[in-house]
Amino acid sequence: MNRDALTAPLLDQCSGADHHRYSFELPARVEFVARARRLARERLHFWGIGGDVHDTAMLVVSELVTNAVVHTDGHLVACELLNGAERLRITVQDQGSSPDGPHVCHTLEEERGRGLLLVEAVSSAWGAYDSQHGPGRLVWAELPHARTSGESGIPHARTPHESGIPHDPQRPC
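Request: output the structure for the sequence above.
Response:
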């Protein structure tokens, strides 16, 4: 078993949840941020997510992966896309962050945190929490969208799990 791998699932799989899930790991180096965007772009295209949601997702992936690379000392960064009926959730996990964790800067004089300020501005919800499976931190953001079912263009039916409340990993489904 590779000790450096981020092997634990980023998000809990809730039985009965209606979603598509895609995740990948990359070396925690700045030159791999573009690869993270490319992998996310390909998956969103596969899922048929375009337009403003696609563009915003690319910004969020870029900012979250960059923060994980720049502000941690780990060897890997993991990214997960969870495509639900009404929202796209992007989660990035690092292997360890500074003691105070990620934060949003609200003044222009502050050098750090502008990426999270962007994420906060474009997301319907976002947050961060410590990994339950070893060191590291997970930062997530959600973007609203309406996924369609097949070629019909009919909105996908809601499940009880898709209540519009962000998933808290500490709370059972």
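The chain has a mean pLDDT of 74.
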